[in-house]
Design a protein that fits this description.
Blueprint lengths: L5 H20 L4 H20 L3 H34 L2 H10 L5 H19 L4 H12 L4 H11 L7 H14 L3 H56 L3 H19 L27 H4 L1 H15 L1 H7 L3 E2 L2 E2 L2 E2 L5 E2 L2 E2 L3 E2 L4 H18 L7 H32 L2 H13 L3 H16 L2 H19 L3 H14 L5 H10 L6 H29 L1
Antiparallel strand pairs: 1-6, 2-5, 3-4
Helix pairs in contact: 1-2, 1-16, 2-15, 3-8, 3-14, 3-15, 5-6, 5-7, 5-8, 5-9, 5-10, 6-7, 6-20, 7-9, 7-20, 7-21, 8-10, 8-18, 9-10, 9-19, 9-21, 12-13, 12-14, 15-18, 16-18, 17-18, 17-19, 17-21, 18-19, 19-21
């Protein structure tokens, strides 16, 4: 049987340490650090934890299914973003928002918080920072503030963003259905929503901006967090991220009509033209792709006949029981089930095709558009896909060989019932070191789940805190900060942005941990 002596515990932790050292210490990307972490897990699992060939093969087959489940969404979300962006629609949406008000604080709040959350909902992978930061700079905001405000502002929306890719990973890694995970995840993320809005404006102009924006944060944050909660707990978590961001933009536009938020001078944005000099689409045409996505996702979830039809073909593999030579048993069961035509990735693919036809017929595409969409998607998705697949494989080896259980046992013994206080910070660490809440959930969610079960406390509360911390960790992740700095003219100055975002990320994650602890103690 497994023993939790210090040396064995450190051996179990070594794959995570390897990834952390390479990504933080040596600034490797996930596509390079992930395979190394996988290799370390493989060697440690075989040599010290008794993982045999059969166990390794089945664990990796499970990892392949889970990776496909998540990557199906990620690839199609990036295709949709590039379909919309090539039509000039993203620029139109952003510039239209910028013209809503002359109040600098409100401009920053709506763009860095609500609009960037909307973009996170449909694309992720640093897209909000890459798109919104240059827009803010063009409006007269400083480069460091522009990148930091967007990094902070959109982080609360990461779990249910990118068509809920991170939430899907949480479901897959823990084996718990979304209907059970959604309530506490949405509650903690809703609290983080208000905190991120206030932190974004504080990063811009301190407490003066906080006082001026407080009413707007309460109104917009209330609308966004309520929208996310209602959609998530009713099974529409695929829509929860970008719908809440869209509602935030709409409510933000209404708030700018209040007399209190009108009248400050600002630098007007440039004319709406793309790189080839063509006029961009009208605002309604610009958002048409997302209207289509809402209709398709809502129909697939709420219309029983359509839901049954789309989910008629599934990939489901049953795996046998496997045991290490040390006696650790992984019971038989099915791997992650993938609905070929009803999966969120499939719904995104249908949206991509319809939107492409609409934009093409509207004359919004130039020559070679399809090739550019494909090339941009591949260049963005391949490195992330390698990182995610390898870290999923690493997590599966750790789980099947008993390493995750051993880590959880050691953490539970050392922290006891104070553990929920640290759950969000563990999630934050995972996102910081891997650049992704998805990866954080894959690596640490099983660990947190097992720890909660060993301590006899609610795993649902702890996992909600985990994914909230992972979402907040995206504002600290070097990989995302580098993306933002590269588009904001701050290449090589990423440290300035991270020093700006670090206090906010740790403070908000710590507050979520305190709330989680109080919830557990009150139960």
């Amino acid at each position: 049987m497994l023993t939790a002596d210090p040396l064995t515990w450190l051996l179990a932790l070594s794959p995570i340490i390897a990834v952390l050292v390479l990504m933080v210490g040596f600034r490797w990307g996930g596509s390079k650090a992930g395979p190394v972490g996988w290799l370390v897990a493989l060697v440690i699992g075989v040599v010290f934890f008794g993982a045999g060939p059969e166990l390794l093969i089945y664990s990796q087959l499970k990892g392949v299914l889970l990776s496909l489940y998540v990557l199906y969404i990620i690839w199609m979300a990036l295709v949709l973003y590039n379909v919309v962006n090539e039509a000039g629609a993203i620029a139109v949406i952003g510039h239209s928002i910028a013209r809503l008000t002359r109040d600098k604080t409100m401009q920053l709040l709506i763009l860095s918080w609500a609009f960037s959350s909307f973009l996170q909902g449909v694309a992720g992978f640093g897209v909000p920072i890459a798109v919104v930061a240059p827009l803010l700079i063009g409006m007269g905001f400083g480069p460091v503030v522009s990148v930091a405000a967007v990094a902070i502002g959109h982080s609360w929306s990461v779990t249910f963003g990118d068509i809920a890719a991170s939430f899907q990973a949480l479901m897959g890694a823990t084996g718990i259905e979304g209907h059970a995970l959604a309530p506490w995840s949405a509650v903690f993320l809703g609290i983080a929503c208000f905190a991120c809005g206030l932190a974004a404006v504080h990063a811009y102009d301190g407490w003066t901006a906080v006082r001026r924006s407080l009413l707007a944060v309460l109104l917009i944050g209330g609308a966004m967090s309520a929208t996310q909660y209602l959609l998530a707990v009713n099974g529409l978590w695929n829509l929860a991220g970008f719908a809440s961001g869209l509602v935030g933009v709409i409510v933000g536009a209404a708030v700018t009509r209040l007399p209190f938020y009108r009248g400050r001078a600002w630098h007007p944005v440039v004319a709406l033209e793309d790189d080839e000099g063509r006029n961009g689409p009208r605002p309604l045409m610009a958002v048409s792709a997302y209207v289509i996505l809402v209709i398709l996702v809502a129909g697939a979830e709420l219309v029983p006949q359509l839901h049954a039809f789309l989910n008629g073909v599934v990939i489901r593999v049953h795996f046998p029981e496997v045991t290490t030579t040390h006696g650790w048993v992984t019971r038989a069961g099915a791997g992650r089930t993938i609905s070929v035509f009803g999966h969120a990735g499939a719904l995104l693919a249908y949206t991509c095709l319809i939107a492409y036809v609409i934009y093409r017929r509207a004359g919004l595409y130039g020559s070679g558009t399809a090739r550019r969409i494909w090339e941009k998607t591949v260049s963005s998705a391949v490195p992330s896909s390698i990182g995610i697949a390898s870290m999923v494989g690493m997590a599966m080896i750790m789980d099947h060989s008993g390493m995750t259980y051993l880590l959880a046992k050691g953490i539970g013994q050392s922290m006891g019932r104070m553990f929920p206080l640290f759950s969000p910070l563990i999630g934050t660490l995972g996102a910081f070191m891997t650049g992704s809440n998805t990866n954080s959930n894959v690596i640490f969610a099983p660990l947190q789940q097992t720890t909660a079960e060993l301590l006899g406390i609610s795993a649902l509360v702890v996992l909600g805190a985990q994914t909230t911390g992972g979402a907040l960790g995206s504002m600290l992740a070097p990989a995302k900060v580098i993306v933002g700095c590269s588009t904001a003219g701050l290449a090589g100055q990423e440290g300035l942005v991270m020093r700006k975002t670090l206090p906010y990320g740790l403070l908000i994650a710590g507050f979520i941990g305190l709330v989680a602890l109080l919830v557990i103690q009150a139960a």
